[in-house]
Structure formats: structure tokens, C-alpha cells
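Structural prep section.
Before we set up the soaks we want a predicted structure of the protein with copper (II) ion in place, mainly to decide which crystallisation condition to try first. Input record follows.
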Amino acid sequence: MIKRKFLLIATLFFITFSFTATAKEFTAEGTVNAIKLSSQKLTISHGPIKGLMGAMKMDFKVADPAMLSDVGVGSKIKFTLKENNKGVLTIMDMEVTEILSEANTGN
Ligand SMILES: [Cu+2]
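Run finished without errors. Recording the C-alpha cells verbatim:
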């Protein structure tokens, strides 16, 4: 159990360190289209993200699965994305700016 805890802390430390070392950060706004609990992702129709991409509908992984229960389908959100050195985007932080529906569907 102790060994496991150490591994978890070491992993978290490593992830945090690698993010701060190489990550690029972006802020964006969008509407949640779907919540995918099993893959820890949100499908979002997002507006243009300066320096990254234009407006489109796509999936983003969230940093913490608990974030998936903070939104519903139709929620408008502001979010912070981090891009790691492999170009993988993760939502690190988000804020609901408008709730259009409280439906929270699974996969
Ligand atoms: Cu996109």
C-alpha cells in the first residue's frame, strides 16, 4: 500500500514536471455536446482557439474524471487546455458559464 502511494506521488510529480517543462497552454470557449465517462472525454463545439485551431466539434480529455460531473450536455464552458510535447491536448481546468440543460448522459 505504501509502495503504491509512493508510485502515485512519483507519477503525479512526473506528470506535473513534464507539463511545466514543455506544455503550451490555451484558453477556449465552447458548448458541451456529449460526456464520455469511459474515455474521460468531453465532446465540445469550440470557438477558434488562438494559435491552435479554428472552430470545430471535437473530443477533449479532461485531467480529472471528477470534472465530467461538473458539466451537463448543453453547458457552455470556458476551459484551459494544455498541449504536451506530443501534441496531446488535455483540459486542465474549466468553468461553466451557462447551463442550458442539466442532463448528464453517460457514454
Ligand atoms: Cu478543435
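Observations: Helices lie at 2-22.
Flagged for discussion at group meeting.
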